[in-house]
Give the backbone structure.
Amino acid sequence: MAAVATVPESAPGPVAPRPRRVRFWRGAVLGVAALYFLVPMAVSFWFTVHTEGKGISLGVYGRILSAPGFLPSLLVSLGLAAATIVTVLLLTLPAMLAVRLGAPRLGPVLEVVATLPLVVPPITYVVGIGTALRGGTEALAATPFWATMIAIQSERFPVVLVLAYVVLTLPFVYRSLDAGLRVIDVRTLVEAARNLGASWPHVMLRVIVPNIRSAIAGASFLTLALVLGEYTVAALLGYQTFPVWIVTVSGNDGQLSVALSVISLLLIWLLLLTVSGAGRKRS
Amino acid sequence: MTTTDAGTAVRGGGRARTGSWPAALPLLAFMALAFGIPALALLLGAFTVRDPQTRLSSFSTANVVESLRGAYLTTLLSSVRLSALVAVAGAVLGTLLAQAVVTSRFRALRESVLTASGVLANFGGVPLAFIWIATLGNSGVVTTALGLGSGVLYNFWGLALVYMYFSVPLMVLVVTPALDGLRPQWREAAHNSGATTWQFWRHVGVPVLTPALLGGVVLLFGGAFAAYATAAAMVGSTVPLVTLQIADALTGDVLIGHENIALALSLDMIVIAVLVMAVYLPLQRRSSRWLR
């Protein structure tokens, strides 16, 4: 109401004296920004389709599919992403519900735990993992745990990467789920469902999850984007995930490397549009 | 009234049903394992020196001291300088862009800039390097078209230019809610009380925005400081950066007796990141007070 009342008053005032000056600097800022952000994108696309003397062709995008190692590395990365999403959700969601249902004192603890990975740059985390794996493999060589140490470092499905990715995505998943849970009244929903005789799995899957569907979707897509783009951890631990493959395969083929970069930009765009689409449907 | 009701309800509920905390155990156990063990290994390793002759390990601060001297110190300072430059310039330009969008009458402009910012803030790593190499690299399209010569991109300033590509959008995302939080009514109140535009910004706008701005600077600093893949794909090791140095020390040849220098350098990085976060978190809490 107050806002509506102020509109007619303020409208004639600022409209007359301000626009030209304001519009000029705004136009300048937007113009420079457009130049800086759009030129590399447009140029990169041009770079991939245009070859000196051969004209324009989309051939390089077809070459991606036939490049050696494309499918295996993509499948490894997708598998890692799926395992990471499932693990991080299964770990985080119950803990966050516990805080809301009966252990509010756990809240600050959880917040600190979920923020810690932000403080640690991925490369230092890799250094830590590498050291722990080397030390662990030496120390556990004579014990039954040795097989476990070998298994989590498997070439075909490196569980150790899933562990690392869960840690690295935890802050984002936590933020996303926290925002989702903040909007609904968890206590009332759970108590109502429990009083009506619903079992705990039923409460989780039929009451809580549908109510925070967009938050879960957002968290999942962020995780997917992060895992599909993550280079540092995988490269330094020596695994051939999709981003690592991109670097290997495109080392001596400039056009192919740029084509893959354009594709990855499009992929992030698509993922984030899906996230915001999921968010809009609920609200 | 509602707050006291909610308060008692939560406290009462906490006493009545303390049985839910075990649901948090898997997460805490997981973090102790997957985060705690590497962190501990890093810390112990950074303070351990192995004698090359006797192969005996001993506790020592030699690695850490070494990592803060000579060439190692140079890379550390170079990283800090690059991150600080990217953070400050990115914050200023991001805020200008956000303000241009927030004050615009076109909703579509605002929507598209914010969506694009969301995408570009997440666009980093190797692909970012390749896109800029295609643009300004030695045989890049713009380099050739403008006749810029080689080596424009492969230095400190080139790296800063590339890092801005994800830093400015990140700043737009951080500062837009704060700029939205500056109610038009405040400006009107200031103007009606006779304040000039400058006075409004000096006494109302900037103080309200400060926590968000500083928080954004810190976030940008952290992002640039931790970045590795872009720099590795773009400049190799022509620009001294601590992340590149750590990767070199991990994979390549290190002087005997200095195996743990990568761990010590990592520890230095974490200390800097912790200091930076210690500034950020309280600020974020303060800024959220104004932005409901």
User: Anything to note?
Assistant: The radius of gyration of chain A is 25 Å. Residues 70-101 of chain A form the longest helix (32 residues). The longest strand of chain A covers residues 50-51. The beta strands of chain A are 50-51, 55-56.
